[in-house]
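User: Can you help me understand a structure? I only have the sequence.
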Amino acid sequence: MKYNKNNDIEIIKLNKTYLDDKKNKVTALKNISLKVKKGSMLALLGPNGAGKSTLINILAGIVNKTSGDVFINGNNYELEERAAKQSIGVVPQELVIDPYFTPKETLEFQAGYYGIKKSNRITMQLLRNLKLEDKARSICTAFIRGYEEKINDS
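Assistant: Let's start by predicting it. Here is the structure, written out as tokens:
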């Protein structure tokens, strides 16, 4: 499948089916195609069960697709998963920070999860940008929610 380099995200005929508790096939996504161009924004709107979270979780690499093609920054997710994961992030509604990690440990852990080599990490730069450099080695339980959200957004 050919990727259009003007798009940051391109999804072509994406499908996701699950088996429910009774082994019945449930279709979560059916033939979804969309393009998100560089510099644009996208909002996913729909009722509960419409597949919004499933789509986001596929893009984040949390859920596997059943069929279709996903390209992120020109990387075919199936063939170049590591490069694709390095190009996308998800900010969950709930905070996912371990309260006993420091901000520095949290960012290092996330970088490792996405396969970023230690030599390519910009942890201290991110902490400086967030004005959290002085708190880099304090455990996260000492922070107010706003600081946790800043770290999570990184």
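Now, to help you interpret it: The two ends are 32 Å apart (CA to CA). The chain has two domains: 7-85, 103-153. Let me know which part you'd like to focus on.
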